[in-house]
Amino acid sequence: MTAGRRRRGRLAKLGRVPDLLIHNISEIASPTGTTARRGPEQGRVWRIADAEVLCRDGRIAFAGSGEERRSRLGDLEGVERLDAGGGTVIPGFVDPHTHLPWAGSREQEFAQRLAGKTYMEIAAAGGGILSTVNATRTASEKELAARVSERLDWMLGCGTTTAEAKSGYGLSTADELKQLRAIRAAAASHPVDLVPTLMAAHEVPPEHREQRERYLDLICEEIIPAVAEQGLAVFSDAFCEHGVFSVDESRRVLVAARAHGMLPRLHADEFVDSGGAELAAELGALSADHLIAISEAGIDAMAAAGIIATLLPGTSFFLMKHTYAPARRMIDAGVPIALATDCNPGSSFTESMPMVFVLAVFELGLSIEEALTGATLNAACSLGLGERIGSVESGKQADLVVLDAPNLLHLAYHYGVNLVTTVVKGGEVVHRAGRRERTA
Ligand code: NIG
Ligand code: FE
Question: Which atom of ligand 1 is the closest one to the Cα of 102?
């Protein structure tokens, strides 16, 4: 990422960008609306051929057929143009669950897993989350911000324009604050927008292992107030899982954070059903995430409360579990599905939403259209941003991705390659891949 490109990204954030007409689009494909799509609506996607998009003041001023644009808006002479090269335009991907600010690497643990050890066995032997905690505690805020920025570059190149980012590898007041400040610093100089989440309840740190209550007191009485005071997080999250934080402990943390203005979201029922989905419903969380082991009662509770299920098929894939969240059951029950990478060094090291898209289609059993809604509008809604981003519609922020593909189907059909040719953020081109000319 060049400094020049970063500067342009900042201008977009300020809304001082010239008009941009994206033309020669074979198809626009996008969900519509500002609220989470559920049930049959999750698969309803607006598609229009031979299309154009006009971006004005950082927002979408027009999206429709070229013919309609010419008759309604005329020639638009002098307006900057972006030739989509006969490709497809979709909304910028929104990645609503990542653990971006970490230091170190867990590649040796990965090698152990390839040799047959499980994630939980490695964690029990002192590896896992705690090994990243050690590395992250040692790193400076500046180093962490640099790591986040590198990961944002990967994200942008794969078409992500907004992401959530959690702390949770600090597990002390100073180190959680350091992670959240690193998120803020990285986002300030990068086109990708970040939504920060406090996740001090990711694991109990070694110094509190004998008296875990003390760590919960620290989270509720010190970490949460400090983060709130500095305005460093929009959400709070807890790892509600057998052997990590119980339902009661997670509730305590999320309620305390809510009292300080941070909205709840939750890692729930990842490995075993621990009642996390029900807790998310009880608290009115914006999202419950993972849910590989969710119960029928959990699905019903989420449907009744209108909670978004953020599914992370990359985690099942990377942990070689061969079991995925029951996405079809959830859609049938009326639970809106969002998709995310879970980008972290232990259980899912990818920044790629297109990879997640492919896994959602092949392993979760979503249709192409359902997966698109999950990776854009529903993901935006899970961050409370459905009014602003997540679809290609007049009035929304102009966060758009041009794909080297004649239609949306190719996002799963032509798998394993990066189809993203151009990314537009706030009406401004912020990423251009080396483009090949389309020949047919
Ligand atoms: O979402 N489940 C908890 N946390 C991460 C894993 C973090 C790690 O292994 O470092 C997750 O999968
Ligand atoms: Fe996670």
Answer: 10
Range of the domain at 32: 2-92+392-432
Contact 279, 251 (CB under 8 A): yes
Per residue in 200-223, pLDDT (tens digit) is: 999 999 999 999 999 999 999 999
Instruction: Report which ligand 1 atom has the smallest distance to the Cα of 129.
Output: 10
Residues 142 and 56 occupy one common structural domain: no
- Per-residue pLDDT for 9 more than 80? no
Task: Inform me whether the pLDDT recorded for 229 exceeds 90.
Answer: yes
439 part of a folded domain: no
Same domain, 78 and 134: no
Name every protein residue with a CB atom under 6 angstroms from any ligand 1 atom.
99, 128-129, 132, 239, 267, 270, 315, 342, 344-347
Nearest CA to ligand 1 atom 12: 347
For ligand 1, the distance from its centroid to the CA atom of residue 257, given in whole angstroms, is: 21
Ligand 1 atom with minimal separation from the 348 CA: 12
Task: Give the ligand at the shortest distance from the Cα of 98.
Answer: 2
Helix axes 276-283, 296-305, angle to 10 degrees: 20
Distance 85 CA to ligand 2 centre (A): 37
Angle between helices 276-283 and 247-259 (to 10 degrees): 30
Q: Which is the closest atom of ligand 1 to the Cα of 315? A: 12
Which ligand neighbours the alpha carbon of 202 most closely?
1
CB 255 within 8 A of CB 285: no
- Ligand in nearest proximity to the CA of 132: 1
For residues 329 and 319, membership in a common domain is answered with yes
Overall domain count for the chain: 2
Q: How far is the CA of 54 from the centre of ligand 1 (A)?
A: 40
The alpha carbon of 400 and the centre of ligand 1 are apart by a number of angstroms equal to: 29
The tens digit of pLDDT for each residue in 23-60 reads 999 999 999 999 999 999 999 999 999 999 999 999 99
pTM over 0.90: yes
363 in the same domain as 238: yes
Q: By three-state DSSP, how is residue 71 classified?
A: helix
Asked whether residue 282 falls in the same domain as residue 419, the answer is no
Which single residue is written with the structure tokens 């729930």? 268
Instruction: Report pLDDT digits (tens) over 361-405.
Output: 999 999 999 999 999 999 999 999 999 999 999 999 999 999 999
Token pair of 399 as six digits: 């966060």
245 and 163, same structural domain?
yes
Residue 129 DSSP symbol: H
CATH number at residue 86: 2.30.40.10
**Span 86-136, pLDDT tens digits:** 999 999 999 999 999 999 999 999 999 999 999 889 988 889 999 999 999
Q: Which residues pair with 91 in a beta bridge?
A: 400
